[in-house]
Amino acid sequence: MAVFKGQKEKMMLDGPENLNRLVIGAEITGNLKTLTSIRLDGVVTGTIDCGAKLVLGTKGVVKGTVNAKQAEIEGTIDGDLFISELLILRATAKINGDISTKKLIIEDGAEFNGACRMGEGEENRKPAKSEDEVLQEQREEDLVY
User: Fold this and answer.
1) Does residue 110 fall inside a structural domain?
2) 112 lies in a domain?
3) How does pLDDT run across 102-136, given as a tens digit for each residue?
4) What family does this belong to (predicted)?
5) What pTM value is reported for the model?
């Protein structure tokens, strides 16, 4: 089987050795950004920016905005979700926030309190950065290490 350049790069990023993981008992306060898939079983307070698939385990909690290509949710999210492809809410999922996604699967038992927008438009993309976020990034770029 031939592997083309784009496929090879994707395979390198999504390989098992590049899977990120936050285990039960771990907590992060701040923004989390990754190009590869991630499994969260701990607590994240802040924005999650995932360039691949996000899996939130049954004990996982997110208090903030989630941006991802795909997501499979078993835990609790208090915040909005922006999923560009497929979002799966498992039976144990609890979502308190708005959802924007291309495709949505909700298992019996999942809880969802918020609005849902589906389709392929711009609304499924990451929300625009606030003025404060833009200013903070500019300050960070001005720092010399």
Assistant:
1) yes
2) yes
3) 999 999 999 999 999 998 755 555 554 555 665 56
4) Belongs to the bactofilin family.
5) 0.75
